Structure formats: structure tokens, C-alpha cells
Amino acid sequence: MSRAIGMIEFKTTPAGITAADAMVKTSEVEIVEAQTVCPGKYIAIITGDLSAVKAAVDTAVTTYEDKCIDSFVLGNPHESIFPAIYGTTQVEEISALGILETYDAASIIEAADQAAKTAIVDLIELRIAKGMCGKSYMLLTGEVSAVEASIERAKELVAEKGMYMDSSVIAHPDRRMIDTIL
């Protein structure tokens, strides 16, 4: 069995909660996060076996298609995705800091997965639409060239979906800035 992560993003809370309920009734999946986010949208992130996650997300999207903003299923997500979502990543040192912001919630997880698989970087945080009017961002660190390559790949991915907003790479950020992030 391969591990997978899936997500739905809905325009309204009632549709999102109903869709999330349908997902867990469809397949043996675990809810990682399910909640209303700014500006009144609803997200649900699930994990489980790839076929179960795919069936659950397909059910939610198909049944509530008119209210769905975006969705995805990722098979074999990078192992740093979950700690970054939970905010439990432990980073000892930041050589370079990469930041990427998207217009939506779903594309940031896909972008983070690609970034982490592009070069040797550590995901620090995935802020998924909380307090950001529906936008999301990720923070990652590593050597400057690795961070640049990872951010560039993530930028390309979200730009294809029209969800890219902004990004930057800071080589050797000041300790005072790092302290505000960690």
C-alpha cells in the first residue's frame, strides 16, 4: 500500500463539511485537517492508501462539483509535508529561506511536495489559508542553490494553475528575522 494525501477546497462551509463527511464514508481515510478558512471557504485534507484517498476525493468532487474550488491527490508525498502542515518541523539552522505564496489553499501543498522533491531542502511551514483571505504560503530552507531550484520548480507548478502570487529567496537571513519564523 502506498501512502497518499488528498485535499478538497470548497466555496462554502456547508458544502465542504458535507463533502468531507462523504469522503470518510467512501473510503478508509484519516482526516488530517478539516475546517473553515478565510474567506469562508472550507478545506479538508485526508491521508491513507492511494486508492482510498483517490476514491474519497473523487466522490467529494463529483458529488459537489458546483461548489468545489480545487482538489488534488498526491501519491507518495514527501515525508516533510505532514510536519510542515502541523507546524512541528524542527529546523536547526537556516542557510537560505525560500518563501512562496499562492492564491488558493490546494496548490500550496502540491507546490511544497514538488519543492521538497526537487532539491535537498527542509520544509519549515505550510500556512494553508489561515488568516490569509484564502491565500497560502510555504517556508523552506537549505543551501541557497537548492532553495532557488525548489522555489523555481514550485513557482512553475502553481503558475500552470494560475495560482502563483509571489516568491522570494533570502540568502543568509538575519538571525532576528529567523527568530520570528521559528
UniProtKB/TrEMBL annotation:
SMART domains: BMC. InterPro entries: BMC_dom, BMC_shell, CcmK-like_sf, CcmK/CsoS1_BMC, Micro_shell_prot_PduT. The keyword Membrane does not apply. It is found in: Bacterial microcompartment. Its main location: other. SUPFAM superfamilies: CcmK-like (SSF143414). Residues 4-86, 96-182 form the BMC domain. Keywords: Bacterial microcompartment. GO terms for cellular component: bacterial microcompartment. Belongs to the bacterial microcompartments protein family. This is BMC domain-containing protein. It comes from Blautia luti.
